[in-house]
Amino acid sequence: MNRRIPAKAAMKEAPVVLYTHESIQEAAAKMYHVQNDTAPVLNEEQRVVGSLSADSLMTAMMKGLSPQKKVTDIMDRQVTTVHELEMPLQKLKWHPPSLPVVNDDRQLSGVLYPDDWLFALEKESRNADSLYQALIDHEHQAMLLVDHKETVVLANKRAKELFNLSAEDLTKKRFSELVVNDQFRSLLSDEANQMTDKVTINNKKYRVMKQSIAAAKSSAVYLAFRFTVADPVSFPDENEDWKEKAEQMETIIEFAHDGIVMVDKEGFITMINQEYADFLEVDAEEVTGKHVTDIIENTRMHLVAETGKPEIADIQPIKGDYMVATRLPIFKEGKLEGAVGKVLFKNLGGFKALKKRMAKLEKELDNYKGEWQETNRAKYQFNQLIGKSESWLKAKNLAQKAAGTDSNVLLLGESGTGKELFAHAIHNASPRSPGPFVKVNCAAIPSDLIESELFGYVEGSFTGAKRGGKKGKFEAADGGTIFLDEIGELPIHMQVKLLRVLQEREVEKVGANAAKPIDIRVVAATNRSLEKMIQSGDFRLDLFYRLNVFSIQIPSLRTRKEDIEALVPYFLKKLSARLGKEVSVIDNRAMAALLHYEWPGNTRELENVIERTVNVVDSYETITDKHLPEKITGMKAAEEPKTLAEQLREAEKKAIFETLQYTNGNKSKAAKLLGISRTALYEKISKYE
Hints:
689 residues; alpha+beta; CBS-domain; Beta-Lactamase; 6 domains; 5-stranded antiparallel β-sheet; 26 strands; elongated
């Protein structure tokens, strides 16, 4: 039985939608107007990038946050969405008030409320029940199914015509109300399966055949009656046919629903079908007569039997599984007599081992997926590229235009200028934003491993290769963006392979016999002059042309010092939040010192200086020039002689950066001059920056 109800089938139009450019005040007005608890937040491309709850909004206002702040400052970025075609049960079991429904492009399609999906699921279940009705409607003879209280519980089309009653009226009747005849009373009392002699109903003669139907190991007994136009000649064949039909009916009773249980008004079990008993690992006969709360965990059957209030499509945890349960009260002549419950499952008992294995794999997959998404996602947006100088805005505007295309981008600029931030922002503003963002630092990978890291390898391709092979960075970026930082450090032989990837849009693993098509966009960055490298033969001209479609020069901080006054409060806010402090004020002398300094390490150095300063001062203390490093203020403080280790560290740092300056940033040449490996050099640079 197909019970796959995708989110799209039950979603509704979102009552309120917020956008990243809207203020907290605008969001509050929208959410108050519709009295909504949670609203999705969309970017300009209508993609879901977060959600905002009424509680978060209220908390922000109580803390005195400016109403003009953007919703992006307080929204939850870890929003859970569900695809239009996805089964949402696993996500609904965490009881979210609603789930944004998205299409393939992660654009908002609607909102799914748990109750709407569960009612859709119940509706499909009811549709499935109609199949069983259709089965007996196909019979040419009138058929009735009577329970142990002589109440009609099922009737086919011919029976409705015979007694001239609707299905609703017929299934409320007791059998003795329909047929007043001593022979019928004997049929009810006699345990044997039998057939009456000729009887008259509505001026027509019929034979009535009775068959007892009991689910295996269950004390519940149903009586099936078939009314056949009297014809002595057909009696023997009809009797055999009826036995066969009765067996089919018995199967329907046992398997028409996944799990059925009935209780009296006190909550004691009067019937449980074998499927349900097997799942609970109990004996159907033994549990009959016991209180339902002693047999079924988390049940509410006794409450429905007590209150008479139905519960439709409720989520009920049973034996570690989440079941969909429906509980309906049973009335007799207007009086509450008990309740019947139905639990949707299908042969779960036979799949216990598989389920345990699936649960383990699902947990491992969720962990891996979370780690992978955290590693391979872009973190920064264009609104986090702080600055209003002409050169900065020029670079930012060009990057925004590049984001709207699918062309390759080459970011140029000194170390620490923010090239990686630009790469993140370009990806997040591009049509590829739902896909992965994979960062590769070409200078940090040892030359003997770079090919397998970038392109992956197949099992057995070399000594030490992992079983099953490994996916390379390019393959991991399929459908998204790959950021090749320090592209100028890529060896010549790897430049050839990269050129092939860009030209053919396919990647071949180490040891593979065939290439695999991939869909990627390349954003590359370097602090070196690629034109000079081309002249010296260190960089391929054809690769340069492939990368240099959108060339963006990121200005150094010393050429846009007017942006320091905007960057300092931005870094203070960011770092204070991270370090758990409240530091937001800097005096004029300290700011003047920052503006006067040349910043050879650019924005990265400025952020490091601000972080050091926040660590030094106390919360709510004003930053003065005394809190800044000596190299910025020019003031030499009295200090104790440094240890030998400290002096060696400073000497090493000085030697490294002077050598890099001598080689014009060429790390390979610098490493050779210093007598260390390129990887070791890169680690030391990261250590001292």
